[in-house]
Amino acid sequence: MRFRPIERHDLPLIQRWLEQPHVARFWNHDTSDAAVERDFGGSITGTEPCEVFIVIHDGAPIGLIQRYLFSAYPEELVEMQTLVSVPPNALSVDYFIGVPDLTGQGLGTAMIREMVDKSWVDHPSSDTIIVPVAVANPASWRALLAAGFTQIATGYLTPDNPIDDGQHHVFRTDRP
Q: What's the mean pLDDT in 134-142?
C-alpha cells in the first residue's frame, strides 16, 4: 500500500466514498461540495493540522486514512482524557475502505498496520497511537485488534453519528 496526501482533485472521490452506506453509517458526513471542501480542504492548504491520505493498493485508490496529534485538537484531547491517559505527542487515526467490494478482505487491517509503521518514521517524537471506535462498528475495532492494537477502555465519547449511543472502545499501540 501507498499513502498519498490528498489533493484538490481527490475531493469528488472522497465525496463519493463518504456517500457509500458502509462509510456513511460511521462517518456521518455532510457530502455537499462545500462541506467536503470545508472538512478536507484544510489538509491540502496546510491550515488544518490533520494529515489526510488517499490509500493506494494495487495501483488504485481504495480508501482514506487521516492522522493527527491529539494535542492539535484540544477538545478531543480533553474528552479522551476522561477515559484514558493520553501521552504527549500521542497520535490518532481515522480510516475507511471506500470501495464497497474491497471491504472484509483484510485491507483495513493492512492499511492500519502500514500507517502505524509510517507514523513511527514520520513522527519520531510520538510513541503512542490511540484510536476511539464506536462500539457499534465491530469491523473497525476488529481491524485495529488484528493490526496489533490493544483495547484499553470502553466508555462514552461524543458520537460522530447521533444514532449511536456514544459508547466507544479505545485502542492503543505503542512504538516497539
A: 96
Say how far apart CA 48 and CA 68 lie, in whole Å. 10
Complete DSSP assignment for the chain: -EEEE--GGGHHHHHHHHHSHHHHHHH----SHHHHHHHHHHHHHT-SS-EEEEEEETTEEEEEEEEEEGGGSHHHHHHHTTTS---TT-EEEEEEE--GGGTTSSHHHHHHHHHHHHHHHH-TT--EEEEEEETT-HHHHHHHHHTT-EEEEEEE---SSTTS--EEEEEEEE--
- 60 pLDDT band, cuts 50/70/90, is very high
Rounded to two decimals, the pTM is 0.95
Task: Indicate the pairing of strand 167-174 with strand 51-57.
Answer: unpaired
Tally of CB atoms within 10 A around 164: 18
